[in-house]
Design goal:
The protein is of the alpha+beta class. 42% of the residues lie in helices and 25% in strands. The longest helix has 37 residues, at 85-121. The chain is elongated, with a radius of gyration of 25 Å.
Length: 309
């Protein structure tokens, strides 16, 4: 609740945690978030607004709903704040799932008969059998490549239902490091867990989360050209959420690329499928968590954060 001069009369603990403030008595205390400060200063009763802002945990989109009341003859505004990033993520994921189902259906309907026909034609006798076989062989191999491409779509729409359970984070991260060393060429990469309490636990599907961590470690090694340092740390924040940070000291991700890295089939790798990060984001969503890229303004290395609420 605030008055026309920007003085804050009442606030709840959830709002303070969301804004990362311990004390909030006037809008001037939001000078580090000018967009939100201006929106709160200018909004009136009945307004519904959205404000994008950057917090230490990453970029968030806040929904503001404003109502008015009189208190001892003075007009007051009551502002309800809510983080709608999760809702936006749900909408984005639902849209992509619908798209991939449609494309899978249509492409498979076309490719299946072509593949079958090419196999048949390759066995047919003819005066130019060698040329026919060569041409049909090309069609067949192309069809198989396209089916492999469609299989990537299927991975995005057929994630197993999570079977959550409590598991200890520290031995899990240590096991992920050992696994990564076998799966990728990481002999010149130093991987360490720099921070994690022995009793830190997470309630999620350990096998699915392992897919996310493995993919992030693989991406980190490739980004550093197989030499450098990858660090992981895990901790519980003020909201009692568990965060796992995976950072590497490789080249920074360009801002334009960073905006698209979670979009299915977007990739900067010549042989990449472009589904790794989008699939990882879906897995985290199904486990009640989020996957974000931390802004470079709050860290020096490329850092991905898994957050379990």
């Amino acid at each position: 609740m605030l008055n026309s001069a920007g003085a804050v009369y009442q606030k709840n603990r959830a709002a303070l945690q969301m804004l990362g403030l311990e004390v909030f008595t006037h809008l001037r205390q939001l000078k580090g978030h000018p967009e939100l400060m201006e929106a709160l200063a200018q909004c009136g009763s009945g307004d519904k607004l959205q404000v994008d802002m950057t917090l230490p945990r990453g970029k968030v989109t806040l929904s503001l709903r404003v109502s008015g009341m009189m208190l001892r003859g003075e007009p007051m505004r009551i502002v309800a704040l809510s983080d709608i990033n999760r809702a936006l993520d749900e909408r984005e994921i639902t849209t992509w799932m619908k798209l991939t189902r449609v494309m899978t259906h249509e492409i498979m309907n076309s490719l299946t008969p072509i593949t079958s026909l090419s196999e048949t034609l390759m066995t047919m006798p003819d005066d130019n059998i060698d040329e026919i076989r060569q041409g049909m062989s090309t069609i067949y191999s192309t069809s198989r490549d396209l089916i492999g491409f469609v299989a990537s779509y299927r991975k995005l729409t057929h994630i197993p239902t999570p079977c959550p359970r409590l598991f200890n984070v520290k031995p899990f991260l240590e096991r992920m490091i050992e696994l990564a060393r076998y799966q990728v060429e990481a002999s010149n990469v130093r991987m360490t867990v720099t921070e994690c309490a022995d009793d830190l636990i997470v309630y999620a599907d350990e096998n699915l989360v392992a897919q996310v961590v493995t993919n992030l470690l693989k991406n980190a090694v490739e980004a550093m050209n197989h030499k450098g340092e990858v660090t992981m740390k895990a901790y519980s924040d003020s909201n009692e959420s568990v965060n796992i940070e995976i950072a590497n000291d490789g080249p920074r991700i360009d801002d334009e690329v960073a905006q698209q890295i979670f979009v299915p089939f977007f990739t900067t790798k010549p042989s990449g499928s472009g589904i790794g990060l989008s699939l990882s984001k879906q897995i985290m969503h199904l486990n009640g968590g989020t996957l974000t890229l931390r802004p470079y303004s709050s860290c020096s290395n490329t850092t991905f954060v898994l957050t379990f609420s």
